[in-house]
TrEMBL record:
Alphabetically ordered keywords of this record: Membrane, Transmembrane, Transmembrane helix
Organism: Lactobacillus iners DSM 13335
Name of the protein described by the UniProt record: Pore-forming protein
Residues passing through the membrane, by range: 12-31, 37-61
Length: 115
């Protein structure tokens, strides 16, 4: 079972900061141009959208036969210990995942159970 997530912590902050720099550069190029549509804005906006979709599709945790694998956009699939549940708030579940010598904090959107 695959569960897609958004990763938090310093790794997530650095990764998403670089991703949003591309978006802000696209907006700046659009504001600074004298044309209605800027080619640089379209190219950078397309790169941002493709990068965002790639990030969302290739950030997942997978469970096969009680073995957990973590996949991040910039890492190969790695075997991890069982994710440690931290908290649940408004349908968001927060987990801590240990990989080799680093920790990742992830947020997974889950449906609320009635039980």
């Amino acid at each position: 079972m695959k569960k897609h997530f958004i990763f938090l912590g310093t790794n997530g902050l650095i990764y998403y900061s670089w991703l949003f720099i591309i978006l802000f550069m696209s907006i700046i190029f659009q504001q600074e141009t004298s044309k209605n549509i800027s080619l640089a804005c379209i190219v950078l906006g397309s790169i941002f959208i493709i990068s965002l979709i790639y990030t969302l599709l290739f950030s997942y945790i997978e469970c096969k036969n009680q073995t957990y694998f973590l996949k991040l956009p910039y890492l190969k699939k790695k075997r991890v210990f069982k994710p440690e549940f931290i908290n649940r708030y408004l349908g968001l579940s927060f987990y801590k995942v240990n990989v080799a010598n680093s920790n990742y904090f992830i947020v997974i959107v889950e449906k609320r159970s009635n039980a």
